[in-house]
Amino acid sequence: MTDQSSPDLTAQLTAQLAALQQQMAALQQAPTTATPAASPWASAPTAAPQINGVAVPVKMQTPAGSIRLYFSLPAECAATPEALMAALEAMAAAGLPLDTWSPRDSGGGSSWGGSRRDSYGNNSNRGGWKR
């Protein structure tokens, strides 16, 4: 028993194969310019970001240890660099211990634990490994 639909099915498959081969050929000939993925970082900002306020860290000593608090200042305090500095200076003048950071003078090394020479200079600390 032979199926009469076999020639029709073969013709349909041959036509689909030809159509797919044409599509593949068209894709291979098309210029290959990569389109960037849609991302908010890819587009340039149209305007400066709107500042809603400024959080200023203050470090307070308690009987249990120190605690970092954040004072929220209104957006007007950050309207200009001068306004921001004036707000910070006013807080310091009021006696608030602002949580600031400044680098330590450690002889040219990292302020995160001494210079590289101090950390790696002794071969006995490295199990005898040499550079």
Q: Report the radius of gyration as a whole number of Å.
A: 34 Å
DSSP, total strands: 2
Order of helices and strands: HEEHH
Report strand order across the widest sheet: 1-2
Shape: elongated
Q: Strand content of the residues, in percent?
A: 15-25%
Count of individual helical segments? 3
The class by helix and strand makeup works out as alpha+beta
Ends distance: 81 Å
Helix fraction, binned, reads 25-40%
Largest sheet: 2 strands, antiparallel
Low-confidence stretches: 114-131
Average of per-residue pLDDT values: 75
Walk me through the structure.
A hairpin with a 2-residue loop joins strand 1 and strand 2 (65-74). It is elongated, with a radius of gyration of 34 Å. Residues 114-131 have low confidence and may be disordered. It has a two-stranded antiparallel ribbon. By secondary structure, it is of the alpha+beta class. It has helices spanning 6-29, 81-93, 116-120; strands spanning 53-62, 65-74. The longest helix has 24 residues, at 6-29.
